[in-house]
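#struct-pred
JK: can someone run the complex with heme C? inputs below
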Amino acid sequence: MQQPNMLRGAVFASFFAVLLLCGAAADEAPSWPQPDPAGLADSPQKDEILYGERLIRRTFSVIGPEVEDPAMRYAGNNLACNSCHLDGGRQRFALSFIGAYDAYPRNMARENEVRTLTQRINGCMERSMNGRALPDDSAEIQAMIAYMRFLSEAAPEGMEGRSSPPLELLDRPASPAAGKEVYVTYCIACHGADGQGARNGVAGDGEGYLYPPVWGPDSFNSGAGMHRLINSARFIHANMPFGATFDYPMLSVEEAWDVAAYINSHGRPEKTGLENDYPDRSRKPVDAPFPPFDDDFSMDQHKLGPFQPIIKERERRSGP
Ligand code: HEC
Ligand code: HEC
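RT: done, structure tokens with the ligand placed:
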């Protein structure tokens, strides 16, 4: 564990140095809270919150496919929630959980019904983690919710930063071929030429990844939010290469779209039954990369864009 983390620290530090050279003074950044449960007074609540944090940061070691107890193997891949919800869900515009507790229950397009935070977590369990749902009353769900609730107590009033950040749309389809060039330049050092990332230790040890895979059998499945181009490009532009932030991105807008298209052009586990998602088709995200749609745009355009014409057509149909 120790050595790879140091290595990652070194790579991160060099990116950070580049950021500083670019004149990104840390104190210019708006202040986004960094609540740390380690500072809480000892109590059973604190233990539960810390268990929730461990589940988010080191998912693979508690409910991953390689843990000792087969009954605890809920996740189907060795990612962590932290692979996408960066810094334990504390990083601004990196799918932060700060504020998420207060946002549920709410009506979700994917099911066209009101969903609880438990159901939302299990959505990521079944798709991003390519696994199975945790029972509602499990200690694991309760602990993750306790942690998200703790984080959300610090949510800054009226400040944007939860979820994924906005990103300009392109007026052309995103190009996987151009994205390959971007990948080779900016991503290969950590995620590898084969997209399989690098393990913390060795496969089978339940220790997960130093750098997660971005496609292939141990990645998120075809029904995951990250498999939609808009989500993926937004996340990448604001957060990758690792060390980039929303305020100081390292990729151009076009590079982010193209590299997202390149990543999503590779194979990954297939989620079955996707045709049942978004029963109200008018609420189906324009970039859902699977049929059916109730419009005449090609599947390719839903996968790669341009999305503006699809959005315009939707607006035209739904009236002023
Ligand atoms: C492969 C990336 C990825 C992984 C891994 C992942 N998620 Fe997510 N998660 C997303 C994306 C993308 C979204 C939001 C976009 C969407 O799905 O429409 C999201 C949304 C969420 C939300 C809703 C947040 C909000 O602000 O409304 C919760 C809660 C959540 N995830 C919990 C988890 C938990 C818990 C885990 C681990 C068990 C996890 N996720 C693993 C990508 C991921
Ligand atoms: C310095 C190493 C590094 C570089 C370079 C890098 N990443 Fe990452 N990436 C990470 C780490 C680390 C995580 C997971 C966060 C964590 O574990 O803290 C991650 C997570 C991701 C994820 C979400 C998790 C998953 O498994 O899919 C995507 C997508 C991603 N990176 C894409 C890219 C792209 C595209 C580039 C190039 C533009 C890139 N990364 C460059 C280190 C890196």
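RT: quick notes.
Residues 56, 59, 79, 81, 83-85, 95, 100, 103, 120-121, 124-125, 128-129, 144, 162-163, 220, 224-226, 231 surround heme C (ligand 1) (CB under 6 Å).
The domain at 164-308 is CATH 1.10.760.10 (Cytochrome Bc1 Complex; Chain D, domain 2).
JK: thanks, will look after standup
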